Amino acid sequence: MNDPTPEIPISLIRGGSFYWVQEKARLIRPNTWDLQKRLPFAIAIAWLPLLVLSFVHGGFRDLHAVLVDYRVYARIFVAIPLLLIGQITMEVRFRVMSQHFLDANVVRIKDLPRFREIMEKARRLRDAKLPEVLAIVVVYAQASYFLESGRMRYASWAIESGSNSITAAGYYSILVAHALFLGLLLLALWKWAIWVYVLRQISRLNLHLDATNGDLNGGLGFLGEVPRSFVPVVLAISAVIGATWRSQILAGQLTVTSLYWSAGLLAVLILLVFFLPLALFAPKLLREKREGNLKYGTLQHLHSLQFREKWTEHRNEHIEELLGNPDLSSLADLSTSFKNVEDMIIFPFRKSAVIALLLALAFPMIPVVTTQIPLKELIKDLFQAIH
Q1: How many CA atoms lie within 13 A of 344 on its CB side?
Q2: Residue 340 and residue 213 in contact, taking contact as beta carbons nearer than 8 Å
Q3: Domain ranges, residue 116
Q4: The total number of structural domains that make up the chain
Q5: In the beta sheet, which residues pair with residue 166?
Q6: Residue 99 falls within a domain, yes or no?
């Protein structure tokens, strides 16, 4: 007998021109991610020429300025490695979540051809060249804006002291190191967009949901774990933004209090981006909950009437059967099922995933806060708040 739920889902990460270039360069193999090769290579490309160019231009003075610039470290040693790690977390989570639609029979057997079509479309989107070309255009358009905005003037190693022109090290930092970070970030967001497409198409199928499911999401609770795969991406974004804010605070351009609204808006935006797509399933879950309340409410009522008639109104006739009688557990089981229906949530999210993303966003911001509030006082205030 054939397996009714074959493995259909494909990788949303292992494809596209950038991935194939890495394969050709033997930086990555089909069944592994080879981080032991890719991480040192990416850091070396972004870091070593920057050191050489800064030293050639300004000697040990510029070299020292680069070595103590935490914005450079935030991009090269934190954000870029995290985005490479994020490719693995996205790959694993997307595969597991997609396959679970089949393994748990959430997608009905008759809809398997349509499910296969959705996955094949996702594969074509993954391998499309146009999104990657657009990513390159966006990267260097943003780099051009960065160069013209004058933001580099706060890095002494990137600006000529007399003419205020950008040094070779400054150009390299923007056109290579920053471009690599932004390119990896845009690729991660493109993979997220493909996943949103997959969710949208699957949400249109006649899914096999069950309002009594113990996950309280009709069987879709596993989707609430998907945003957790973006924790490395959020950490990378927060590290770069936090380094920029810290620099601006120390330069007297900003204060910590002036960033409250920006930080709050960033947190809301992150949660909306990674959790709002789950609302695609809300209409189906709402319908399942309404139908479940009616069906299981009727069933529980009929069962309760029969139970009352047998065990209260005609108790003496069945008194010898009371001990260990399955009627008692049957009533309890049915009540539990009905309570699951009543407690069902029509938005399949997990609080733990929300907390994970918020912590990933907040942790790199600690150096920003400590520019005006000493770390010792900050920890003391946190303990006082807890107690």
Answers
A1: 28
A2: yes
A3: 7-190
A4: 1
A5: 159
A6: yes
